[in-house]
Amino acid sequence: MSDLLKNSNLSLDTADKIVSDTLHDCDDGELYIEDTKFETVTLDDNKIKSSEYSIDSGYGFRAITDDVIAYSHSNEISEESLKKSGENLKSTLKGKKGTYNSAITKTNQKFYNDIDPIETKSLNAKIELLNLMNEYSRSKDQSVKQVSASFLGEKKNIEILRLGGELLKDSRPLVRINISMMVEKNGRKETAVYGVGGRQSYDEYLKDGSWKKLCDEAFRIATTNLKSKPSPAGEMKVVLGPGWPAILIHEAIGHGLEGDFNRKKTSVFHNLVGRRVASEGVTIIDDGTIDNRRGSLNIDDEGTPTEKTVLIEKGILKNFMQDRLNARLMNTKSTGNGRRENYKHIVLPRMRNTIMLNGTHTQEEMINSVNRGIFAVSFGGGQVDITSGKFVFNCTEAYEIVDGKIGAPLKGATLIGDGPSSLKEVLMVGNDMMLDPGIGTCGKSGQGVPVGVGQPSLLIDNMTVGGTQL
Amino acid sequence: MLKEKEYLGNIAEQCISKSNKLGSTDVSVMVMHSVSEDVSVRNRKLDGSTRSENLGIRLTTYIGKKKSTISSSDLNTKNLDGLINRCIESTKITPEDDLNSLADKELYFKGDKDLDLYDETVLENKKKIEYINEAEEEAFSRKDIVNTNGSGFSQNKSNFILANSSGFSDGYKTSQFTAYCEVVSKNNGSMERDYEYSSKRFFNDILKPKQLGSKAAELALKKLNPKKIKSEKLNIIFDKRIAKGFLSSFSSAISSSSFSKGTTFLKDKLNKKIFGDKINIQDKADIKKANGSRYFDIEGVKTSPLDLVKDGALNDLLIDTYNGKKIKKKSNGRASGSSNLYFLNGDLSFEELLNSNKKLLYITETIGRGSNIITGDYSVGASGLMVENGEFSYPVSEITIAGNLNNIYKNISLANDLEFNYSTNSPTMLVEGMIVGGK
């Protein structure tokens, strides 16, 4: 029984016929149907600036033979539209002949509940809480000049119809609560952003006054930055804090281990399976199975159950992250990493929750061992060039380390490094693994998908810090 | 087939009348339709094709000074009625904001639409594939080009109607043709990538395949076997495609929204010098065929030409209706941001810039977020080429460049090689005295 075809003139039987007619000579492909409800409620400059609700539904029809992908999508879910798309796919793949493998692993695993987070909290209650967050933040100190806070909620239902009539479903809630603050003192301005989220109702993140902690954290970071001094420039030792700084792992190593770049041999890692790519203490996994996490999925967007994939074990490269296409062409199996932003996009191998596991050292040990370096606690955005392996990060909270002690906060520090070599420079892996607060969105080929990261504190021997002090 | 004005207009009208019936005092609605057909190619072989069709609506209802918005891609009447109902109910709950309103009627766009923003040309996928194959062919004819990251061609056509309850109703078609080629070079264990792309409203205006392929190859080859340099203070030349990025952060820093909240490092700088005397920045929406051209913004306000920076002084802002009221200025049609934003030409030739110092760093790529528009701090990862005595000497990578936009702006000199390839455009730019982080 399809839930998503209910309001259209397209019956599951007809859809099934069009799917068979289109895909029978292909290696792979499916009809992907999606219905997403999305809301944002934003407070800015003391006012409720916007309350928005949107519905987006549509289908994406994909046919693959060899390494050629034909794709057609539309937000008109109807028999005529789907037939037209089918013709379009067949004409792209004309003259090619493949063999469709209908078998797909099935699962009953559930890592989140089927709730609609938009409806589980009334608009009134959301507005009330945003106003409270605003008042509370502004009452903390006179230096707080601007507060902006928002609720973002989503409920996405998907159905995947494969050749042979297999219908796979998932129902995914997602929320995010953000606060940003600008403080000003003695003519100097600084800002901070903080947020939490995951695949549960808003209230799980707000209950027992925990919304105050969000405001407190944003205030703490912003006021710390008011005291910051210009960052040094040059190579030095770097201690990374636990949790969110693992976006460094995501950029430096994660993207380079995605199947597509390795199948195409454009990743620096493509010929390094079985080889040492990191220090002995480094084990990294990509895990789609952690309860209620932002990057978790019951099944990926091709219907493959997600799993815990070991990428690097004790420094040795073990596996790439695969979708069905790249797995088939590389003679391996999908790891459940096939994802797409929505029905308007093709599937790509993407990360879920990418995590470095615990080592044995304490953060204190790491800091004590550094004569001159920086301690990076939080990052803003990051980016990587897959081919050259170079990656970059902007620190939003960082401190200098002088003679084994944490010193003054630093402003505007950028870290730049080389993916394949940076993990070989890991000197100590901490015992304080933490997951991020649930705010990450990864961008690739113009598609954003929710992801998670996690790591213990790390000491890296040598990275280039970009600042203004020589 | 792209939906016509009548079809989109009908939906808009229905939405307005339905909202009014349910109690809204004002309504604004946008109905959009787009069709795009893309092909991608790798190693001169078809990699994929995508056909996209999107029909959508965005509706804002007002009850007095209360406001709420919905959007949807499902336009069947039953669904739409339910959504409009939901929008009205949310509007009733949302607190009042005195500044909420539609735009001033007298600012609405009226007039001829003669900017040539729509090309009727329809390219069969076969033609697109040939175009891109030829570009890759050209790139692969160069030694050390070993792979491609994928190249592609896309053809996009859109139509929309913007209508509101004070009588505005207008829209127009636009088209966009984009070709790109991204290749990988390899030599002595060093692997680099670079790209060239060209995106124009008219098919005939995009770069020809051979130019596209040879430019991508040339750029990827130039980057091979880079060195890391020492940390030092250097004069930096930004290639045009990087220099235009300074305009993007500038446009956020001079939006009326940043000004009204004080969240910009330029807050107190209106009518003051922020650049050197020779720097001028304009935003012109009425350039024929240009990527950023438009007749009006998302509020229906005419997008008039602006001299944003005149002889180094900040002369104007990008203003929308809501934030304009806060800073007591009328909208100048920038609720959708800047249009064609560009630095006017400087008085130096490209060669003169290269020879302006014995040692310069020429930046061809930056990665990372870059600018903090509240503090003006600028810091990015970068790669490029070392320039010694006016000649390119060797590629440089894994470095950072940092500074503060307040200082950077005062130290900019521009070449006289402005071209209109994007919606923001800059001549080649020299910035004196930036801090390079390296070894």
Note poorly predicted spans of chain B: none
Averaged pLDDT of chain A, please?
95
Helix/strand-derived category of chain B reads alpha+beta
β-strand number of chain A: 23
Radius of gyration of chain B: 24 Å
Biggest pleated-sheet summary of chain B: 7 strands, antiparallel
Major beta sheet summary of chain A: 7 strands, mixed
Number of helices of chain A: 10
Residue share in helix of chain B: 10-25%
Q: What is the first-to-last residue Cα distance of chain B? A: 57 Å
Helical proportion of chain A?
Answer: 10-25%
Can you tell me about this structure?
Chain A is globular. In chain A, a hairpin with a 2-residue loop joins β2 and β3 (68-74). In chain A, strands 9, 10, 11, 14, 20, 21 and 22 form a seven-stranded mixed β-sheet that branches. In chain A, strands 3-2-1-4-5-6 form a six-stranded antiparallel β-sheet. In chain A, strands 8-15-16-18-23 form a five-stranded mixed beta barrel. Chain A has a domain at 234-466. Chain A has helices at 12-23, 79-92, 123-140, 203-206, 210-226, 247-254, 259-263, 324-329, 363-368, 419-422, and strands at residues 28-44, 47-65, 68-74, 144-161, 167-185, 188-198, 229-230, 234-240, 284-287, 308-313, 316-317, 338-339, 348-349, 353-356, 372-384, 390-402, 405-411, 414-418, 426-429, 434-435, 440-444, 447-455, 458-466. Chain A has 470 residues and is of the alpha+beta class. Chain A starts with 11 loop residues before the first helix and ends with a strand. Chain B is globular and about 70 Å long. Chain B has 439 residues and is α+β, with helices and mostly antiparallel strands. Chain B has helices at residues 5-21, 77-93, 125-140, 209-222, 240-243, 245-253, 256-261, 321-326, 350-354, 405-410, and strands spanning 26-42, 45-63, 66-72, 145-164, 169-170, 173-187, 190-200, 232-238, 281-283, 306-310, 313-314, 341-343, 359-371, 377-388, 391-404, 412-414, 424-425, 429-437. Among the domains of chain B are: 5-34 and 50-103, PmbA/TldD superfamily (PmbA/TldD fold); 232-245 and 345-437, no CATH class. In chain B, β14 and β15 form a beta hairpin. Chain B contains ten helices and 18 strands. Classes of the chains: A alpha+beta (470), B alpha+beta (439). Chains A and B meet through β2, β3, α2, α3 and β6 of A and β2, β3, α2, β4 and β7 of B.
